[in-house]
């Protein structure tokens, strides 16, 4: 926003710069005419008249030259103004990159595949104020599917497990995530989000490591804004 404000200020200063160039062009014209008048006056006094070029023609040529210089200066002054206006229009019209769509369709966890599920979780993070939000899941992701930054600056690393109701998240899933979320991904808050539930050993391991777990029921409440975002489950001084 600051850059846009600066560009607007630069556009307002454009006419003043053009006015200064116009004054300079008029000054050049006056200097040329005055110099030629002095030259012919001196030549007349010395008796050296009739050099072959009428005085009026020389004055006209000098005036045209001065005007050409003035117009060049005007064009030079106007070009940056046009460039700043184009830059301003571009800055205003340019969309913000990598912001997930947070419309109703973006939050439908049941209508997507596992890759799409990562995007729905990212959309939830964006809806609740995180910026930036990045989907990083894939081969070699080392347990991180979504990385988001909260309003208060905390780094949230989320792992997403779209499982059927009868497929519970086990302790091995949590152990793999727990081994990388803090040490590799530098999480302030680590969150595991699943559409199913967790086994008792998995939930115990998560509690020991400080991983926030969002099961299917909690995910529905978060989506419907009946529960706060998972990163608010930890106080800031403990995150």
Mean pLDDT: 73
Q: Proportion of β residues? A: 5-15%
Q: Low-confidence spans: pLDDT under 50, at least 5 residues?
A: 1-13, 78-100, 235-239
* CATH topology annotation of the largest domain: Trna Endonuclease, Chain: A, domain 1
Radius of gyration: 35 Å
Order of helices and strands: HHHEEEHEHEH
SSE class: alpha/beta
Tell me the strand order in the biggest sheet.
1-2-3-4-5
Largest sheet: 5 strands, mixed
Class of the largest domain in CATH?
Answer: Alpha Beta
DSSP summary: helix tally: 6
Query: What is the domain tally?
Result: 2
Shape: elongated
Number of strands: 5
Helix content: 40-55%
Q: Distance between the terminal alpha carbons, to the nearest Å? A: 31 Å
Q: At CATH's second level, what is the architecture of the largest domain? A: 3-Layer(aba) Sandwich
Structure in words:
This protein is of the alpha/beta class and 239 residues long. The protein has helices spanning 2-46, 55-93, 114-127, 171-178, 200-209, 216-223; strands spanning 133-135, 146-149, 155-161, 189-194, 211-214. It folds into two domains: 2-93; 104-238, Trna Endonuclease, Chain: A, domain 1, CATH 3.40.1350. Helices cover 52% and strands 10% of the residues. The chain is built from six helices and five strands. Helix 5 (200-209) links the parallel strand 4 and strand 5 (211-214). It starts with a helix and ends in a 16-residue tail after the last helix.
């Amino acid at each position: 926003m600051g850059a846009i404000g600066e560009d607007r200020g630069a556009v307002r200063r454009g006419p003043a710069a053009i006015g200064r160039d116009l004054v300079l062009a008029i000054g050049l014209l006056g200097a040329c005419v005055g110099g030629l008048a002095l030259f012919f006056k001196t030549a007349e006094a010395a008796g050296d008249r009739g050099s072959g070029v009428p005085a009026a023609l020389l004055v006209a040529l000098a005036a045209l030259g001065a005007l050409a210089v003035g117009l060049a200066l005007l064009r030079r002054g106007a070009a940056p103004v046009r460039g700043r206006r184009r830059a301003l229009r571009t800055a205003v019209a340019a969309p913000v990159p990598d912001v997930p769509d947070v419309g109703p369709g973006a939050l439908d966890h049941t209508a997507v595949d596992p890759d799409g599920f990562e995007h729905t979780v990212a959309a939830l993070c964006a809806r609740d104020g995180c910026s930036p939000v990045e989907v990083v899941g894939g081969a070699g992701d080392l347990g991180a599917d979504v990385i988001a930054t909260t309003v208060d600056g905390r780094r949230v690393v989320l792992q997403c497990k779209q499982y059927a109701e009868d497929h519970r998240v086990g302790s091995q899933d949590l152990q793999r995530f727990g081994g990388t979320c803090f040490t590799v991904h530098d999480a302030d808050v680590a969150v595991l989000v699943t559409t199913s539930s967790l086994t008792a050993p998995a939930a115990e391991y998560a509690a020991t490591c400080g991983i926030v777990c969002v099961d299917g029921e909690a995910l529905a409440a978060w989506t419907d804004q009946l529960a706060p975002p998972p990163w608010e489950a930890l106080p800031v001084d403990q995150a």
